[in-house]
Amino acid sequence: MLNRLGGQLPIAAQEGKLPTFVRNPVPEPEMQVTSSTNWPFDIRPLSAHLGAELIGVDLVQGVDDVLFRAIYAAFLKHQVLLFGTQQLPPGRQVEFARRFGEVQIHVMNQYHADGYPELYRLSNLDENGIPTGKHPDRGTLAWHTDGSWQRVTGQATILYAEVATSEGGETHFCDMYGAYERLSPAWKTRIANLRAVHNLNFSRTRRHGEDPMTEAQRRERPPVDHPIVRTHPETGRKCIFLGDHAEYIQGMDYEEGRALIEELNAMAVHADLTYAHRWSPGQLILWDNRCVMHRATEYDPATQRRVIRRCTVLGEVPH
Ligand SMILES: [Fe+2]
After folding, report:
1. How far, in Å, is the centroid of ligand 1 from the Cα of 154?
2. Is residue 33 classed exposed, middle or buried when 0-12, 13-18 and 19+ CB atoms within 10 A define those classes?
3. How large is the average pLDDT for residues 267-275?
4. What are phi and psi of 61, to 5 degrees?
């Protein structure tokens, strides 16, 4: 089925529903574990389209320049990287993040963790490790890109699982290069010069209304506009840059812009461009916010236990 500009709609959108998760496509046999030419680790694709596991990288020991260059090359190529189980202290996570660039100090300072303002802790446990029944941030359940509500947006995000659920609480990633490439020529022309206004207060209020931003936090993070079609500053490839923080479109009637954003957000997510990750404790995932959207999935915060430490590295002003 085609949408009104001749683009192929994802199956879920054809059925009038939000895109839904489909388990990861299986990588082709030739995509199994490989030793890449000069990389000091083996690599295993996580799905047929994006994501790779780096095998044999011990982040606890620290990352020297040779290793970091290889990780960075893999990051640009695979967009989402998984590191095997390790007991990574908070300071080591921040240290690793700093290799990528300046680390964001999140405006929602109630989430700062372990004495590190660079870490944002998503936990449903109380101080005794008992589930509170309260989800720590329901805004993460919608597809988004971290920090798109800032002028300088997020480059890498690094998640580390201290405690993982046995059911639900997955993280899903979708390739926005592929999403752009699948747009029809008419859609590409239509959105080529449009800019969306991203607003953290909008997305939080709309999704849950819990822990509203204070007036000072809102003042600190006013809405900002970004191109809907972004050129990745390092790969030079075009991708869709939108997600749940996008509120309206500059120069367009508010409701018309809202409808366009909703349509594009739905069109951007394709099951076969998505990798779905089920967490184990001690795993770390790193991804490129400039060309990937992500979301968490629901879990029962009254019975499940989930503690994730997040660190986001600042990138650049999108163009
Ligand atoms: Fe996020």
Report:
1. 10
2. exposed
3. 96
4. -75, -10
| CA 144 to ligand 1 center in whole angstroms | 6
The rounded Å distance from CA 198 to ligand 1 centre is 14
Residue 274 has pLDDT above 60, yes or no: yes
Domain ranges of the chain: 11-314
Cα 112 to middle of ligand 1, angstroms: 15
Q: Check: CB of residue 143 under 8 Å from CB of residue 265.
A: yes
Q: Measure 200 CA to ligand 1 centroid, in angstroms.
A: 12
Q: Which fold has domain 11-314?
A: Double-stranded beta-helix (3.60.130)
| 291, 144 Cβ separation under 8 angstroms | no
Q: Is 218 exposed, middle or buried (0-12, 13-18, 19+ CB in 10 A)?
A: middle
Rounded to the nearest whole angstrom, what is the distance from the C-alpha of residue 29 to the centroid of ligand 1?
Answer: 32
Whether 167 shows a pLDDT value over 50: the answer reads yes
- DSSP class of residue 31 equals G
